[in-house]
Amino acid sequence: MSDLDRLQTHDLEIGITEAIQQHVSRTVVASKPVSQRKLDFEHARPRWLRECMGEATGVFFYVFPGLAATANFTINATAAGGVTAYSSLFQIGWAYAIGITFAIVTCAATSGGHFNPAITIALALWQGFPWKKVPYFIFSQIFGAFMAGILIMGMYWPEIQAMNDKYIAAGLPLVANGAPASILCSFPNTNQTNAGYLVLVEFFVDSFIAIVIWSCLDPANPFVAPAAAPFLIGLAYGNMVWGFADVTIATNLARDLGTRIVASIFYGGEVFTYMNYAPIGILVNVPATLFATAYYEFLMRDSFLIIGRGHAIHEDGEDGLMRHVSKTGRIEEEELRRVMSGGRAATITRTKESESRKMS
Q1: Sign of CA dihedral 240, 241, 245, 250
Q2: In whole angstroms, how far apart are CA 86 and each of 71, 157, 167?
Q3: CA–CA separation, 312 and 305 (whole Å)
Q4: Count of structural domains, the chain
Q5: Which of 73, 82, 100, 204 is a Cys-bridge partner for 62, taking CB atoms 3.0 to 4.6 Å apart?
Q6: What is the CATH number of the domain that holds 147?
Q7: Which residues, 6 or more positions from 109, have their beta carbon under 8 angstroms from its beta carbon?
Q8: CB neighbour burial string for 202-232, b if at least 16 within 10 angstroms, e if fewer
Q9: Which of 281, 298, 301 is nearest to 218 (CA)?
Q10: DSSP symbols for 249-295
């Protein structure tokens, strides 16, 4: 082709544009066959153990990087080069956000991906999660955070010990915001003496996160693809860390209690009594999450659309759905179209024809 001919076409010139060409299709070598021994082992493995380990591992996966970023920030707070050369609240927020994303991606398929006692309780209350599993899941979540705290103390021990010695020599408390114990769990600022203020901050931070989580779990939400949910939930946590970490938040019973137990091993019972904050950090997220999920369930949930799209069924089956449609009157065309797209067209059409005959 001549240069003149090339100029007369609407084709893209060769360059990075080669990337949009259809690539050569290649196959991957088949993996080795699954042995019967492996199948027998997995069949004999208790499901409850698998789910509990999934929850513990998931909590570990986001608490571990979050604590590591916090340790980096706290230990280097007075570094000669400035703390921002090592860490910042912005970095801590990203550590938790990406950690939560990794936790969901790696463990949610195993356990359901609760990773938060408040979410476990909310799922039991609103979505039919078995109540008998709730204690096991909560214990596993706390255990995962505990193990993350233990490991961080071991990995950062020389630096933490040096910080302890420095604080003791200066006559400073080891348990306070910015002190060594704050690597593991939250403590209020010295000027935050109003417990009601701390409850207010914690309550609405946790409510914000819970509504984002519930909207991501809503199958009727067209704006959240399944693959996007881990990133959006992680960003919700990161968003709250960026906005409110400086005024003391905990956000998760398991994360706070598990690491606070580790802190009590190294720094004593004061971590549970300092400024009477521990009950706020440990417990407030539960009623906050229940409030937020109730808000979504009662004011924002569209259960009829969920049934229409085939994600749920009426408790009385097709007959119950038909009775509901008859009782509520004529269905709007847009609502009918949405229900039809979910495979319920026959039921709704029969109902509309029946109503038309009655009117005629």
Answers
A1: positive
A2: 10, 17, 20
A3: 9
A4: 1
A5: 100
A6: 1.20.1080.10
A7: none
A8: bbebbbbbbbbbbbbbbebbeebeeeebbbb
A9: 301
A10: ----HHHHHHHHHHHHHHH-THHHHGGG-HHHHHHTHHHHHHHHHHH
Please answer whether residues 145 and 60 qualify as being in contact, where contact means their C-beta atoms are separated by less than 8 angstroms: yes
Residue 141 within any structural domain of the chain: yes
Distance separating alpha carbons of residues 124 and 293, to the nearest angstrom:
12
How far is CA 96 from each of CA 52, 131, 207, 230, rounded to the nearest angstrom? Answer: 21, 28, 17, 12
Mean pLDDT of 105-132: 96
Q: Tell me the whole-structure pTM to 2 decimals.
A: 0.84
With contact defined as beta carbons under 8 Å apart, do 51 and 132 qualify? no
Residue 60 in any domain: the answer is yes
pLDDT of 87 > 90? The answer is: no
The dihedrals phi and psi of 302, each to the nearest 5 degrees, come to -120, 85
Residue by residue, DSSP assigns 305-346 as HHHHTTS---TTHHHHHHHHHHHH-PPPHHHHHHHHHTT-HH
Residue 94 resides in a domain: yes
Question: Which tokens sit at 308?
Answer: 């229409």
* Residue 129 is assigned to a structural domain of this protein: yes
> Which residue do the tokens 């009601």 mark?
196
Measured CA angle at 203 (ends 201, 209), to 5 deg: 100
pLDDT given at position 314? 73
End-to-end CA distance of the chain: 72
Pick from 4-13, 62-71, 280-289, 301-310: least confident: 4-13
Domain that holds residue 136: 47-306
- Among the residue ranges 7-11, 148-152, 173-177, the one predicted with the least confidence is 7-11
Q: Calculate helix-pair angle for 345-359, 317-328, nearest 10 degrees.
A: 40
Write down the pLDDT at residue 303.
74
The answer to whether 195 and 65 have CB atoms below 8 angstroms apart is no
Question: Does 262 have pLDDT greater than 70?
Answer: yes
* 314 close to 347: Cβ distance less than 8 angstroms: no
Q: Phi, psi (5° rounding) for residue 280? A: -70, -50
Residues 6+ apart with CB under 8 A from 35: none
User: What span, in angstroms and rounded, lies between the C-alpha atoms of 220 and 229?
Assistant: 14
d(CA 140, CA 51): 9
DSSP state at residue 180: G
